[in-house]
Write a structure and sequence with these properties.
The complex is a heterodimer of chains A (about 575) and B (about 475). With about 575 residues, chain A is α/β, with parallel strands linked by helices. Chain A has 19 helices and 23 strands. Chain B has 14 helices and 18 strands. The chains are: A alpha/beta (about 575), B alpha+beta (about 475).
Chain lengths: ~575, ~475
Amino acid sequence: MQSAISISLSSPSPIARFDVINTSNACLPTPRSLRFCGLRGEAFQSTSSFKTSSFRSARLNSRSSLNKVFAALNSNGATSSSSSSGFDYDLVIIGAGVGGHGAALHAVEKGLKTAIIEGDVVGGTCVNRGCVPSKALLAVSGRMRELQNEQHMKSFGLQVAAAGYDRQGVADHANNLAAKIRGNLTNSLKAIGVDILTGVGTILGPQKLKYGKGGSGDTIITAKDIIIATGSVPFVPKGIEVDGKSVITSDHALKLEFIPEWIAIVGSGYIGLEFSDVYTALGSEVTFIEALDQLMPGFDPEIGKLAQRVLINPRKIDYHTGVFASKITPAKDGKPVQIELIDAKTKEPKDTLEVDAALIATGRAPFTEGLGLENINVQTQRGFVPVDERMRVIDANGKLVPNLYCIGDANGKMMLAHAASAQGISVIEQVSGKDHVLNHLSIPAACFTHPEISFVGLTEPQAREKGEKEGFEISIAKTSFKANTKALAENEGEGLAKLIYRPDNGEILGVHIFGMHAADLIHEASNAIAMGTRLQDIKFAVHAHPTLSEILDELFKSAKVKVSTSSAVAQPVPV
Amino acid sequence: MSHSHLLRSSFIPTAPTSLHRRSAAVSHAPTRTQQIQSKIREIFMPALSSTMTEGKIVSWVKSEGEKLSKGESVVVVESDKADMDVESFYDGYLAAIIVDEGLSAAVGSTIALLAESEEEIALALSQKSSSSASSPVSVPAPSDSDASKVFDEMPSSEEVASTQVLNASVSSAGLGSAAHPASEGGKRVVASPYAKKLAKYLGVDLRGVVGSGPNGRVVAKDVEAAVKVSGGGGGAGATVVASEVAAKSSGVKLGSVVPFTTMQSAVSRNMVESLAVPTFRVGYTITTDALDALYKKIKSKGVTMTALLAKAAALALVKHPVVNSSCRDGKSFTYNSHINIAVAVAIDGGLITPVLQDADKSDIYTLSRKWKELVDKARAKQLQPNEYNTGTFTLSNLGMFGVDRFDAILPPGTGAIMAVGASQPSIVGTKDGRIGMKTQMQVNVTADHRVIYGADLAAFLQTLAKIIEDPKDLTL
């Protein structure tokens, strides 16, 4: 969840988006590329290559037709089917997080009369308690780290006196960023005429739901299609008492109310790792508590090892692996936070820690209570709403519930903000009459430590397993940041990019990057996977020199594929 | 065939290129066969790429005595291309590290020893100690004779090993066992992550460290303090220099080639650079009876001799700004606006010059406090650049060793440096024809003759002598 997508859009241009998508859809024979973030400022960019000159003029004219389109939007889909079919809305989305937002934007593009129900604040976890504020803190920690690294500064010939920070100033930066993005998000919804309905949304039956503060004051509405996008909350294992002061979750940590001298972080996934980066940069010492035998269990093992060498070992961090925190008692009466550790396998007591604070980063639990799922005979599995590959909700009898979809953390398929958004767009494609299945293996993920970690597709062990099962060969290619001019200019030669591919047909199975700006670099690989671009083709794409993107260029070129280039890229273009 | 031996007894990196073994490694395969029997295996520098001839140890993932299992990373090696983890091919204990972090070794040479069981660690250690004498720091691939010699000595070296173990246990017991308030009667040590890391790095037994953190937790500064105490540093000011140098002289591996540390490289660079400056020297004998008396009087207030000398020099420099000037380009010179006295301190095998800024303006007590702070920071390697490279005039004092006079090299970018000898009783003739006893010291100033001339130095020294011989101004 922490892996953020950047959602900053100061001046949304929904009208232009509305226009172009309609035209481009009409003429595109191939499925349109997915947008991972529905908040892109430049909607033209992605489709411009398909445009003929007539579309170009349509685009130029869009400004003059602004008023007219606005009028249509203000009546929110009055011309669409909803009025004729007798529903209040074509689409109602429960939850205005990044997933709901992405879906709403795309729905309006498709001409659907859309409403979004939000019981808390617009923006959901990502914007308010997740990716967005954490990026603000990480931006600070990155700079701190750089300024504190005398060796690094010296190698540039820079002299910096002892760097310090003001906790409140750092906390304010995170808070202001969240507020700003929240504002942008709300405005972008309002600008295109999406109704934001305040309150808790509950499903009453097929195509029928209510919203409000609960009780009799609730409003009942009908919708042709409903999307559940209620997201998740921090998961706190039993035995752990969260007091919000000394024992905290990411929700509290992002407010940065105090910086403990020593903090234990339970869980070494993205969230834990990013917070360890923030806390150590601000002077805390960190102890990781990980239930599995290895730190950073979600990453490709090789990347994990390298990351451990760079992000853990040289820092003021130690760790206990293979243990559960069976009981955590908050600090009180002058006593420190007490953590009891038990062996993850034998359950025998192993150790007791006394620390100043504990951050629970053991993952996230779906937020699906009060949704009224019982009214439509849907049973959650560990809280998650069961769905098929098209995000259609499955009921207790294993049957699809018509007109009901669930996207994002609530379905647990891939708990990432941009995955939720992509799933939402996929659903909108379906409800507007076009079949669409999202390829989750093309969704990138990133961890914004310094340096960053990013990946898309399979890890090496996963790829090997798949290869064995399906009978194809796997090859690995690697390039080092040390060999990249731009990385060396920045004195950031520490890093590795790893490609897992099929030598027989050049298919990219996975790409893993650890190093400076890894989170930005991954998209060339994720786009290639999404589009099905093969290595033998992409290796002819040109990269500007000197840039970090050459690391991927290098990576693609070093792959040894047994088939030759397909002719598509070789079309001559007169210059 | 030798290949198979190699692969069995060695470590291969995660990269598939490891099959590109170099001939150096192949040449002494027979020795290795024997060592397999002895259950002590050598860990070799692997070839991580086809072009790699030597590798640098970036870091040891495991430390000596640590258990490791097959497939675990043991060491990180930097090749000509990238850093790579080298994994263990066996279960066992990392008995001895032969090539330390930061050093290079040829592909195929032994970089560490792996013991199969804990009992065999001692055996491996003895193997290391006997081999280390013959293995220079930039380890070339050991020749056959070397390797076999190591093997020959093994049976008899068990004795050596046991004494080593004994020594180790004695020294750890000697640390004492202060009961830890937060440790359930001393059974458990509560130490912060960084304190633990630091203790491991500095070889401090945490059980003997008294914690000063919350609830008696051991924090990093406690570990640093423990090192200081056991190192015997103690005193302030000039005495630090003496003890640190003395401590340094023992425990040097004779015949070894040691690459410069960062500090040593910096000193080396500065020294060579200094040759470009035309310097000359002027000496002076100063009577220090009055200064000694003053020192005795205010010593209890934390005043150090270093601070007194720095203050005296600063006051003299106020009157002779040219001696406090510096010439950097050979075309012009700067009358420095501040009088910053740098004082040379031998530290940790190197040399650093903490700076007493505006020594003319601070009173002697502030100056003494400041000096103590600087020395502490220097030893913790926490001096900020402006605390060691802003000196305008340098003081070097070897008096506490009994040195009566010496000659100092002028640090580049400054105008003059003063070498201070020991102050000792001497028989002197007085003007009225009698012989008397006076305590005297010799000072010798080296200066940049492009800007400072003989007469300048002479006048400066005369002023300095006056101040020291009548030191009432020092305490103002």
